[in-house]
Amino acid sequence: MTPPLDAAAIERRPVPPLGGFGPAIVRLEVRRLLRNRRTVIFTMVVPTIFFLIFGLNASYGPHPVGSGNESAAILISMAVYGAVLATTTGGAMVSIERAAGWSRQLRITPLSPAAYVVAKMLTSLVLAAAAVGVVYVVGSATGKPHMPVSVWVLTALLVWVGSLLFAAFGLFVGYLLPSENVMQLNGFALMLFSFGGGLFIPLSQFAPLLRTLAAGTPLWGLNQLVHYPLAGGAFEWTWVANIVVWLALFSAGAAWRFSTATARV
Amino acid sequence: MALTAVSLRGVHKRFGDVAAVRGLDLDLDPGEVVAFLGPNGAGKTTTIDMVLGLSSPTEGTVEVFGIPPHQAVRKGLVSAVMQTGGLLPDFTVAETVEYTAALFVEPRPVDEVLERAGISRIATRRVGACSGGEQQRLRFAMALLPDPALLILDEPTQGMDVEGRRDFWRAIRHDAESGRTILFATHYLEEADAYASRVVFVRRGEVVADGTAAEVRNLAAGRTVRATLPGADVDALGALPGTVAVEVRGDTVLVRSTDSDTVARHLLTATPARDLEVTSAGLEEAFIALTGDGGGQQLSAASEAGS
Fold first, then answer.
1. Which of A12, A192, A233, B242 is buried deepest, with most CB atoms within 10 A?
2. What count of CB pairs under 8 Å joins A to B?
3. How many domains does chain B have?
């Protein structure tokens, strides 16, 4: 420090670019998330085990689906499940961090609230990439899922990018609810959404009314879309509409809660 | 021209019907080490929040080095050690500091601030496993990262044991030698006495006294002159300039006065008093007198000194 400070020296003192955002904070956040055993089990181990249970089933696994087989379709569904759990968890971390007073601590640093949210989303995406990667690598190692190489790559990318929808959901819930309830609620909500999206049971086995209702749930559009490269057939714009509407709702909710939260703290 | 480190002008802060801060004026010069004292609810934390840009005044202006607080924070001119919370238990000590360092332009090296806060040897420990004192020194290390010109400490040693408090203040005192402006809120009066070059008392959202620790002590209760004087003339003593109170306990007389020299001279020259003793009131008494209820008499004295 070089006192005394004059107005020119104050003026010269730099403000960090990008609101204080940088790769270092994402790296540290990811490290912290991966250290949490519960997070790793729920986002990587559980979806992989689900695949091993359902995807390797000899009676329907080899059944052909589009350019591949049923085992591959289940692999994609489980990757979706792991990825959205990862992004939801990443987004909902704001709840815990607010309860710990960490968000307040960050307010007395140059980090802008927007940069904080961007860091959270990128952290979520890294965790989602790991979740998709683990399921796909294990799935590929079993030799049971069959689909063209391009479909392996394309579906993995679609699942990964699509999981960002649930980073918005996680942020919304994280800013809405106190930390003690947020993880339980997320687990329950995602389980419901997963059934609605047809991740666990094919929607064709639902009663017609239930199938109509399922089409309005937030994982439905995403799950249909990510299976499209494998299943082929007619492309439905209602999938995209479902994603866009839910993304708008979650983002608006997150933005609304975020603005009230940062105004108060 | 050197700028005022902190400038509060006619600051009011209301939460609904509750006025937490009522017309506070305060200027801190660069390099001052100022204790901010007051009972709970006096408005200390509310004021500190405004200086840090965590909240805005309902009325009045707050500037830090001549610019709005949130800009001063972004430029790393001001940092703070907050009371509690503000740490993530699943980061290690070093990771917490690294994360914070990544947010600033040209921060001090992580190793350096860990060393200066005295926590180098626990760098790899998880924050959740650290004691209250260690967590507080971690907050101090984080606050040192931008090399701030103004450092704010909000009741920094609350909940620490005696040794933790001593270690913490040793680190702060060492740091203050570099010319940093320091403002600390505390309710440990001995800390204000020992470490502050200036003491600001607040009560119900207003400054009620402002001066050096010794001045503030005098202001509240003056000194007490105690002597053995059988049959003391209470009225004569009470008429002396500066006398606040006269008390007789058997053969002993106690005179509280803001001008103890006059009392002592009178006792020794005009009366047969002996065993004379002059004692200074502690900051503790000053604190009670100035911040408790019914301190009207002291309040008028305080406003004189504040001007």
1. B242
2. 119
3. 2
